[in-house]
Amino acid sequence: xxxxxxxxxxxxxxxxxxxxxxxxxxxxxxxxxxxxxxxxxxxxxxxxxxxxxxxxxxxxxxxxxxxxxxxxxxxxxxxxxxxxxxxxxxxxxxxxxxxxxxxxxxxxxxxxxxxxxxxxxxxxxxxxxxxxxxxxxxxxxxxxxxxxxxxxxxxxxxxxxxxxxxxxxxxxxxx
Amino acid sequence: xxxxxxxxxxxxxxxxxxxxxxxxxxxxxxxxxxxxxxxxxxxxxxxxxxxxxxxxxxxxxxxxxxxxxxxxxxxxxxxxxxxxxxxxxxxxxxxxxxxxxxxxxxxxxxxxxxxxxxxxxxxxxxxxxxxxxxxxxxxxxxxxxxxxxxxxxxxxxxxxxxxxxxxxxxxxxxxxxxxxxxxxxxxxxxxxxxxxxxxxxxxxxxxxxxxxxxxxxxxxxxxxxxxxxxxxxxxxxxxxxxxxxxxxxxxxxxxxxxxxxxxxxxxxxxxxx
Lengths: 175, 273
Fold this sequence. Notes:
The complex is a heterodimer of chains A (175) and B (273).
Chain A lengths: L1 E4 L4 H4 L7 E10 L2 H12 L12 E3 L24 H9 L4 E4 L5 H9 L3 E4 L5 H4 L3 E8 L8 E15 L11
Helix pairs in contact in A: 3-4
Chain B lengths: L1 E4 H17 L3 H13 L3 H20 L9 E9 L2 E4 L2 H15 L6 E4 L3 E5 L4 E7 L4 E8 L1 H4 L3 E5 L5 H15 L7 E9 L1 H10 L11 H11 L14 E11 L4 E8 L6 E4 L1
Helix pairs in contact in B: 1-4, 2-3
């Protein structure tokens, strides 16, 4: 199976096709609803962002609390479509990859194609199993958001399926 | 008169929190195993295997089956001859909060739906019912919101045809599509009032998946599994594991139909005190 490492520059993802399975290693950042709203507000008011967006990967995930002795709790993907309204601006700012579950809007598919991004899905409802691939977790920003805070995760061979590739082809088909 | 103390209720709820979140329901596991055996689509089979492995791993490691440990919904059935000392609702909410904290689940509840703000572990949503006898039955259903967001309610005309209702139910599943973690379990409430139909749709998720199904339920399930949505929405014959309908008498002017969808991680646990 194809293995890729972050940061995800265009060369690493240009040959990936929708439907293809890949294993991702490196750094990814968790962000979901409230964190997206804050990131977009920060961009619009020209404030500094909590992490470098260039070639970065965002994971739509809000893990459980971390059980004692573990690196992270259950940490599967949340529904990506709720983040649709925020994604275009983040892609313009250099975001390369998104990981979640489910379909995206036509606007997001278009933005992925235009900005040469990529959208992955991972095994939804398998949060316990996915925690095995997380090697470290560190708070980066918005700690007050609790499970919606931005965490920096180091992952090893995190299992993904390409759902929308750089050419905008979707595994779910196109409208 | 039999008496139950609030502290016993809190303890029981904590136990339910653990059971519901760490161990998948036996009937759900059996349905998933059967789906895995019957599925012909290779990718669907791989996903079903992952889902089964996840359930085993969660149980072994005391990890939540899914990071969305839900909005806890508690069905409370109170025997009319039972005396409860202390505050019943507080006892239940204390058990939820203490259990979710103790077992490192997720604090997904915001106190104000509009202002949002800092999230916590409680309160839960309670459905109270007074029943005959002197026992207290508590059922916890941690309802994930990816699938709860796909709920639908429609007030049909009393003269509408059954086909219209069937289409509404199947369309609700199609709208959920890949987003809400298929394969689904579908709960349907028909009759009563708008609120009662929705409560029944939720309650229908508690019915054993292996229970005997009506012709209508079987027919709907068959049609849903023909949509080809499949596990994770990537194709296959396993779009739903089961569909259960609850009905109640209704008004001559109306026909409420509510659909409540559950993801494959349909979790619930019950206890009788």
